[in-house]
Structure formats: structure tokens, C-alpha cells
Amino acid sequence: MEIIDRKENQLLDRVEIRFQLRHEGASTPSRSQLRSKVASLEPGSSASNVVVKDVVTRFGQPLTSGLAFIYGSQESMQIEPSYILERHGAEVTEEGTNDASPTDSEPPVEVEAEDVSGGEE
Asked: Which of 18, 26, 73, 113 could be a cystine partner for 4, CB 3.0 to 4.6 Å?
């Protein structure tokens, strides 16, 4: 695995790595395989704190490139959307959910149903 670009983002407590991986004679690596390989690039990191994004494999070539975020802790990973965390098997806390949901103080909006019968009576 080759690192193309590496940035430290101290504000979000993560390291952002753009990588390339040549996989001659093998199929495209799975997300979990990529997570463990990216974690091995950064000393002191674990695969459970790695989020792999933007994975692209070139057609007809054994070359895969992508973007990975290596977070410093599980708490700092909570800025990722909940579907990304579920995809990576991380625990989702209430603070980490980015879903827009109505609050309990807002009353539900009622809509009258229209008559949708197709014929005349």
C-alpha cells in the first residue's frame, strides 16, 4: 500500500490518508482488509478507528485507490454520518447521529386525505 497524500486534522482528531493499493493476482480487497492495511500505516492506530471512503478500482487494472480517515478515538468518530458508522461496525451514540428528526415539542402536521376514487358515482 502506498500513501499518496497524508494530512493531520487536529481539529477533528484524525489523520486523512489518500492511498493506492496494487493487488496483482487477487480480487479487490474488502473494506475490512483495507481498514487493517490503513491502520498498519499509522503507528498506534487500530482498525476500529479507521473509516474508509471513496474506494475506486480501475477497470482491468489491479489498482485500488481511496481515502481513509484514522480517528484518535471512538468519540471523535461520531462526527461521521450514522450510516457510515454502521457500515464500519462502529457504535453509534445519540450525539453522533446526523439524522434530522422532529423534536418532541413540535406537534405532528395533519393532512386531510383527498377522495381518490377513479369513477363517477
From this structure: 18
